[in-house]
Every structure is written in structure tokens, then in C-alpha cells.
Here is the input.
Amino acid sequence: MNILLIGPQGSGKGTQGELLSQSLQIPHISSGDLLREEMTKHTPRARKLKTLVNNGKLVPDVLIEDMVLDRLGKVDCRKGFILEGFPRTIAQAEWLGDARTIRAVIELRLSTRDALRRIFLRKQCVSCGHTFGPGAVAYKKGSCDHCGGKLEKRADDTPAAVKKRLALYHEKTEPLIAYYRKQKVLLSFDGAQEIQGLFGKIANALKKIN
Ligand code: AMP
Here is the structure.
């Protein structure tokens, strides 16, 4: 089953994506993670990406579409995937719709106030990219549960970049909610709920369409 996760920054897409990946045994793919991995390379493309991403701007469609297509073509996506962070615009959604059939789009709703609070508190593993909130044991330890890597604030989680990213979300990504509702694949949830409770509701909703 091909699933998308949509919601503002900090709404828990990464956390729910990981839980769903474990339970459905299909990969969780984040376009932001694909880009951050690319940005670790010493190439002109990586330098260009860093400037865009760290300033809270969207990267050009063809660049991210190539990376997504490449990842979705890998053998582990044969039974489906959970894609987070892509599409971010109607143009990207139309492109994706031509490339793959999407069975479910999970929207996580969160107020701007809660999103800002979560983003300013979260930390990410510099090695594997896992994100942790202040409630996690790893957060208090300062090292990742999965690989032992150091936890740091994301380079693009600065107040100016976050403001820009949230504004971009409302302007460019929010119209996708109506787009997918019209296609009758939208499942909408309150992202402010506690992690396991929310996961249970999402898993139940997915069972009904399986
Ligand atoms: P995220 O980890 O989803 O917050 O993404 C981090 C950054 O990567 C975004 O602020 C954008 O600069 C870039 N990015 C991720 N996904 C996309 C996309 N679908 N289209 C354009 N830029 C993207």
C-alpha cells in the first residue's frame, strides 16, 4: 500500500511514519532525509541544496522528483511505501499521481503554536536522522536510541527558517488536503494527541481500507 503523510512541521509525521513502517513492514521515506543525506556530499549540488534547505526554501521540483523516483524504484518499495515531505505542492502531487497510485493520505493537523513549540524543542541525530522530542529518553541522554549518534538541533530549525517553512506549508502544501479529499483517499487526525494513541487510530483507519 502506498501511503503519504502530510502535516505542518512538528506534527509527528516522522514518528508516525516510523511506527507505521514497523507495523506494515514497508519503508518510511522522508524527502527531507533524502535531501539531508545528499547535502553531506562535497558537490556543487550539495552546496546549492544546503543554501536552499537551511534558509527554509523549497528545492526545485525536478531535483526532488528525481531523488524520490530513484528511492521509490528500490526493491524494498515493491509492496508499498510511506512517503513523508513529498509532495509539498499540487504540481508535485500531480507528478506523483502519474508515477504511483496513492491508497491513503494521512493528514496530521496541528496548530501553529504547537508546531512552533515542538520544532524549537526537538533534536535530531547527526548520524541517522532520527528526531526526538523532550519526552524521549534519548533526548535526555543526548544520544540516539538507534545508532548512538549525537543529538543536535537541525540546521534549518532556526526561528527565521521555521517561520518561512510554516508559511510555505500553509501556502503551498495545505491545498493538497482538498486535492486528496476530492480523490477520497484522505484520512485526517489531530496531531496533538499522544503518540501511541494516535498511532492506534491511524492503524485502525488503514485496516478498513486494506
Ligand atoms: P523536512 O525534513 O520535510 O522538514 O524538509 C526539510 C527541507 O527540505 C524543506 O524545508 C525543504 O527545503 C526541503 N524539502 C523537503 N521536501 C521537499 C519537497 N517535496 N519539495 C521541495 N523541497 C523539499
